[in-house]
Amino acid sequence: MTASLIDGKAIAATIRAEVKSAADRLRDERGTVPGLAFILVGDNPASQVYVRSKGKACEEMGFHSVTERLPASTAQDDLLSRIESFNRDPAIHGILVQLPLPAHINEQTIIESIDYRKDVDGFHPVNVGRLVIGLPSLRPCTPAGVQELLVRCGHDPAGKHVVVVGRSNIVGKPVLNMLLQKQKGANAIVTVAHTGAGDLVPYLRQADIVVAALGKPEIIRGEMLKPGCVVIDVGINRIPDPSAKNGTRIVGDVHFPSASTVASAITPVPGGVGPMTIAMLMKNTLLAAEGILYR
Ligand code: GUN
Fold first, then answer.
1. pLDDT per residue over 81-105, tens digit each?
2. For residue 93, what is the domain's CATH number?
C-alpha cells in the first residue's frame, strides 16, 4: 500500500460541525430551525437504513425532521398531495423522497413536483439546469461530497484531468458539471467514460483523478490506473464473502488492494464518499433554510 487514505468519515464530521454551528446561528439570529421532510414509499431495506441515518444526522444538527412512511401501494396522486403539503409548509425547508420508488410511480413526475427551493437532492430540472450554467443552486449530495473531499484533502481538481466513470443523473453527470465550472474547487478537464467506451483503460490511464461511479463491484483495478493518481470510489456494492458474519461485505467499484498500490490517495469503502453524502444533505438543508440561493 502506497496510497494515503482519504478519510471521508473525518471530513464529513468536520462539515457536520460547521453546519451545526451555522444552524445554531440561524436559530439564534433569525429564529429559523431548518426542517427536513423524508418520504419513504414501500419497505426497501436499504432505503430504510438510509432514511434512518439521515434522520439521526438531523437530530445531531438540531434540525426539525419528519419522516412520512407510505405503503408500497400508495397511489401517485396521494404521494403528490403529500409533497404539495410539504411544499406549502413553512417549517419544512427540504423535501427528500427516497429513491427508488415503486414501479407504478413515475420518478421524474415526483421529482418535478417538489418545490425546487426545497429540492435538497438537487434533482429538479431547475437545479440541474442552474448547475450546468454555473448558477447557485441546491446540488446533488454525493457529487457535492466528491468535490468537497477532493478540495479538503488537498487535491484541488483545478487544471487536472478528471475521468468520471459512469453517467448517471445522480452521480456521473452532476460530477461532470460541478468539476467543469470555472469556479473555485473546480476548473478541471473532465472526461466521462461509460459502458459505451468498451475498454476503460485508455481513459483511466490518462486520469489524474478517477471518480468511479459505475455500480460494478471492484471493476477498476490498480493495473488500469496511472501511477500517483487520486481515486474517489463512489460505489457501494454488496458481494458474497463466506468469511463474513452475514456472508456478505460491502465493496466499491474499485479493487482497493491493487489500486492502493498504484494511486497516491484513495477513498475506502465504506468510510469514504458514503458519509459525505449525508453531510452534504445537512448542508443543503441549511442552505435551503437560509433561503439565499435563489434571491
Ligand atoms: N437513493 C439512493 N441515493 C439517493 C439519493 O441521493 N437521494 C434519494 N432521494 N434517494 C436515493
1. 999 999 999 999 999 999 999 999 9
2. 3.40.50.10860
* Ligand 1 atom index nearest CA of 100: 1
Q: Which of 121, 208, 233, 253 is labelled catalytic?
A: 121
121 is catalytic: yes
pLDDT tens across 238-268, in order?
A: 999 999 999 999 999 999 999 999 999 999 9
- CATH number (domain holding residue 223): 3.40.50.720
> Is 191 found in the same domain as 68?
no
Q: Is 160 in the same domain as 267?
A: yes
Exposure of 226 by Cβ count < 10 A (0-12 exposed, 13-18 middle, 19+ buried)? Answer: middle
Read off the DSSP letter of residue 163.
E
141 close to ligand 1 (CB < 6 Angstrom): yes
Centroid of ligand 1 to alpha carbon of 216 (angstroms): 18
Residue 108 lies in a domain: yes
Q: What is the domain range of residue 50?
A: 32-118
Question: Residue 48's CB: how many other CB atoms inside 10 A?
Answer: 14
Closest CA to 116 of 288, 295, 252: 288
Do 71 and 196 belong together in one domain? no
In short, whether 37's Cβ falls inside 6 Å of ligand 1 is no
Ligand 1 centroid distance, CA of 100 (Å): 7
**How many independent structural domains does the chain possess?**
2
* Three-state helix/strand/coil letters over 220-256: ECHHHCCCCCEEEECCCEEEECCCCCCCEEEECCECH
Q: Please state whether the predicted TM-score (pTM) of the whole model is above 0.85.
A: yes
CA 221–ligand 1 middle distance (angstroms): 27
